[in-house]
Amino acid sequence: MKYSIFSLARAALSGHKNWQRTWRDAAPKDRYDVVIIGGGGHGLATAWFLASEFGMKNVAVLEKGWIGSGNAGRNTTIIRSNYGLPGNTGFYELSMKLWERMEQDLNYNAMVSQRGVLNLYHSDAQRDAYARRGNTMRINGIDAELLDQPALKKMLPFLNFDHARFPVQGGLLQRRGGTARHDAVAWGYAHAASELGVDIIQNCEVTGFVRDANGKVTGVETSRGRIGAGKVGMAVAGSSSRVADMAGLRLPIESHVLQAFVSEAIKPLIPGVMTFGAGHFYVSQSDKGGLVFGGDIDGYNSYAQRGNLPVMEDVCEGGMAIIPMIGRVRLLRQWGGIMDMSMDGSPIIDKTPVDGLYLNAGWCYGGFKATPGSGLVFAHLIARDESHKEAARFRLDRFRTGAVIDEKGQGAQPNLH
Amino acid sequence: MRIICPFCGERELGEFTYLGDAKPVRPAADAGEDAVYDYVYLRDNIAGVMDENWYHGGGCRAWLKVTRNTLTHEISGVEAAAGAGARQVAK
Amino acid sequence: MTSHRLSSGGLIDRSAPLNFRFDGKSYSGFKGDTLASALVANGVKLVGRSFKYHRPRGILTAGSEEPNALIELRSGARREPNTKATTAELYEGLEAASQNRWPSLNFDVMSVNQLFAPIFVAGFYYKTFMWPAKFWEAIYEPAIRRAAGLGRAAGIADPDYYDKAWAHYDVLIAGSGPTGLAAALAAGRTGARVILCEEDFTPGGRLIADGGTIDGMPAAEWLSRTLAELGSLPDVRIMTRTTLFGVYDGGTYGAIERVNDHVPSPPEHQVRQRLWRIVAKRCVVAAGALERPIVFAGNDAPGVMMASAMRSYIARYAAAPAKRMALFTNNEDGWRTVETALGAGLQVAAVIDARAEISPAHRSLASKGGFPVLHGSVSGIDGGKNGVRKISVSLTGGARAEVEADGLAVSGGWNPTVGLTSYHRGRPKWRDDIAAFVPDGAPPGMVAAGAANGAFGLGACLREGFAAGVTAARDAGHGNGSGSTPVADDEAFSLTPLWHVAGKGKAFVDQQHDVTASDIELAQREGFESVEHLKRYTTLGMATDQGKTSNVAGLAIMAAVTGKSIPETGTTIYRPPYVPVAIGAFAGHHRDETFHATRLTPSHHWAAEQGAIFVDTGLWKRAQWYPRAGEKDWLESVTREVKAVRGGVGFCDVSTLGKIDVHGADAGAFLDRVYINTFSNLAVGKARYGLMLREDGIVYDDGTTSRLAEDHYFLTTTTAKAGLVMQHLEFCRQVLFPELDVQLTSVSDQWAQFSIAGPKTRDLLKEIVDPSEDLSNEGFPFMGAREVALRGGVKARLFRISFSGEMAFEISVPARYGEAMARNLMIAGHPFGVTPYGTEALGVMRIEKGHVAGPELSGTTTAADLGLGKMMSTKKDFIGRVMAGREALIAADRQVVVGIKPTDKARRLRSGAHIIPKGQTPGPDNDQGYVTSVCFSPTSDHWIGLALVERGRERIGEIVHAHDPLRGEDYDVEICNPVFYDPDGGRQRG
Q1: Neighbours of C908 (CB within 10 A)
Q2: What's the rounded mean pLDDT across residues C883-895?
Q3: CB A277 within 8 A of CB A119
Q4: What is the ipTM of this complex?
Q5: How far is CA C158 from the centre of its chain?
Q6: At A129, which CATH number?
Q7: Which position among A77, C130, C387, C832 has the lowest Cβ density within 10 Å, counted as fewest Cβ atoms?
Q8: What fold, for B2-80?
Q9: Chains A, C: CB contacts under 8 A, how many?
């Protein structure tokens, strides 16, 4: 069913009784050409690209709970392509371009809003690092601007310019960055993929892999029975190690908790996305009016999907330090998601040593913005058995060869990325 | 979380820094690149009880082996690292 | 007397009248009122507008679960949006304004949205606003953003202070109703340390409004006796205005104390609120239960109120929400409101009871009170923004009736407060007998009791509370206390579940977010039938009340349309905080200049006297340069400082370096394992530059380490990594190499260290150091290091090391002598023209000398990238050795450190510019590196820089392009040797 203001108006006449399910409630078939494990944004996007770009429509997405109920529905909704290292730069820009046409691609309003992403700097060294990064972006055809303090004062007069422990000197701005309505991204891909024939199967937990005599994966065991597959793709960030373990793989990944917070809804206060450079705090304001903010991961391995007070305090301290007008705004809700923290802070999209099993993992806390790009390059890898050119560096063996993509320069310690 | 430091007593999470899984053992000098790669990069990433290295940087600077459940954050044991504390030097 | 104030009763202080303003109009109330109760007493019905449809809304509850009566409290910098009128204590001069309306509450243009309600159904925005694409950011979204949101934040810095505190107790109790007080009595009498948090400003919970008889006395008397006894126990602390909002790991709880929200502004030197981190061995959740609404058409009209809230206003505040009320109930408890109203002399128009059976007592109450009991349900409200006029009733059997009343009390039963017990992702369980969710387990150390555990009778609450208190104290290591369980009767509990009265008209489930019963049906139709999808698609339960009055009704309606049971449908995940908490409270004093600590170097105050400009380096304030009168900019000052050092002598406080004493028989062996080069063969009295890697083969840190004795080394780190290197070395010592006899001591703060540099350094030092010390090139050669005596006897450590490339020493004295050392260097150096220099001049000289620092030690460079590959010993194992040999880390095309200089000598260089081969159009494929560090070199008389460039060392002399589109600059630079100054090192050895 096509969505538009006209279909809405027509539906209103009949009391909205005629709307169909946003995606079909499919029962598992015996076999698919491709089975994607994980009904988050990445898995659903992969299925949609398989069907729409690569003509593979005999595809199932298996989700152990409800689609979008993992990190797709638990993030701070930021989209950007302001990366500095080869591998990341091109990939995230590919993703950004896909965000820019998402509504029209999917016939679903994911509220992609390019209100800008601004990274503040507070020292000459930070400015130089942002200059390097911004120049990388420009060389790659990505928009970037370096703002000085007077420009910032004009743009965000409410920042703490007068009493700052670490005075704001300027910022790196990507105007095309912004936010999107996270849940709607998952629903939109589900809607569009389902229209193309993809089966989206909820409440279907994968419990094991089916392997042939040569070790090739030929299907999965699930809580809804065995499902045969020509190829199996994993897009289960947060649970990658657990699923990979079923295939006997150990990954360069640790699971960590990242907390995020939302305030009560208030009238528009903060225009775009902003990150504080002298503490752990980033913030945007949702269309509904809540300030959506976060900071560092808690720092310890966790599958608990909840965090502790020290990080919550640290984040709010950062917020108050840079935007002292939010003191009386109330924090409404805190939550925690499981992050696939990789050993260099960058993702892995690659074939695995197991024939027929493809891996999409290690998104750290940057997975949301990658959703459309990840879907496209993972579909490419699965359909063609070779990496998309913008994902060619996201290899699993890069840790073995040393060709890591370490934006923060922190090395093999996941909780520092 | 609260960790009972063998030297300082029960202390609050904010005093400690986390490193990670305490199980991997640094390979011997002649173990070869694969063994070191495994040590540096691969993780069991256990969903459940694991031994972990924590540093009491906000206290006595001891490294501790903390047994903790990553699903619940429950801590079931703490012991000092083998080399923690002052060494008895023979006179 | 105001129009709806009762002539007697209540806990208000009639001797203390208070004036306040709402939407600019003046009213009066009393001390003991909330803003809501004062508005009720003044007959105000319309208090707010809803989120989406801007429907008129009144006051629904009398507590922190309020979805509707949200106001902007105070003004100016203290304006607090979305404040619940039901919890805001009245004070003299209180100012409040309604929100989310324009131009006024009474006439809100945005209520036109109601006309579009047929289109503005759940999730409508996902289906439209897509064409044309560019209209989203330009037109649709800005309009939506302006319309959304509720109140307005102040928009200027919060002028108030917040505090954070820790508390350690045996037993923590949440709630001071009968359950909590009984628990506190039981635990307190054992001698246990007890803390009780109550969010209200008055303890007592439902006892205050609902009364009852306990231990043969009226509830009020029992309450005051109990409070007196608890007050007499030295280790029992009762904190009112304090909400327990979260439970974290290890028995850590978060609570927010509203210290001064009940006064116009905090008294001087006092905080507004205080965040408590409470550590408790046991926690009793006695947070009670919340009455739940019944969803019916028009249920959001001002004047429709929860039954328990209505009797709170009558009994506690002596304010009558209605003078002729009606009750719509499906349970026994709702009838209490009728009793309370009649007792206060108010009229009761009718009771609409959905149950088939009504108790004889209530039947006789009805006949005595002269009002009808209608079996059926409310199907509509006739009224306007200023209250209820008429209530339509569908009688059991199909007939209809109408009731004339000016207010409707609603009771759909009670939901235990299951938040705190569920914050560790626990899911409550369903109990059919009370048709409610109750806790199913709780985080370690926590237990729910009383109404929070589904025990609704007063006697049961007292029994459960007392028993929980006894158990908690015992588990916390205390014996039995004295006294016995307080005794009260248990009221009959009879409820017939009723969630939704089907019918025409909008029936609201989540009143704040305007989620209707038909929205839930639509969500189900579209496949959003899991509770998490339901929540996200309709925004049910996501408003400032977090669905306290709406969630259970919503999922009950979803259960009905899917044909599943309520427990099968399940609940969403409960998340803290229990009530919204000001962000400022979580920050406490960590804001403005006190956001983070400030570390001052030993010579800071002296440097400040000199007029130094300071720069933040981590937490440190370091002197960046020392301007002198007449100098026009920083560059002139820095150039002067550099020239003074290179031509004479200068000094710089370098105390911020990390300093570690390494002691023990195996100290040398230990350093050999953590550095890439060898230290065990370093002679006593000598220093050596060392480089350490991470285990992944990338450079971690550098610094000089000196051997002061056979078993004693003195190690220095960079300023940035001081703490991290200490942690790393302790890990190596304690975990990796416990067999080594070595001890580490951080002495960063114990030593003040100065670099003294320039050809006249020795002349200056002779004035400072005891004449018996031999400072000659033979007696103290380059890279020498030893303890020396200063004139006057103070012992110092002296190192002949040089970062500047000049003849130089670094001298360490105990930190308490640091400032004196700076002053003495100035006095003793006067004849030699001694010049203090800052971090800028330090940086200039290190770039001139080609020394790598922070920008080159970026966490992605190898030793070889930095030109230090030869330092890597091949004769021993060390941290990072094996991984440093991986193919990508030894590839020929890696970016390595080189020098650069502009072909146009007048050209200024900038860090962050990229290196592109000359003549090529910049693109990802020819982006060959970037400029890491630049300075104006007084020695070269032009700008110079260091850069990381692909195959750079093979390209010395090549002209490349510095590409800096961000700053609109493009220019040619020549790749050169990174050592610009004294490449053979003669000056530092001389």
Answers
A1: 13
A2: 98
A3: yes
A4: 0.97
A5: 16
A6: 3.30.9.10
A7: C832
A8: Folate-binding fold (3.30.2270)
A9: 350
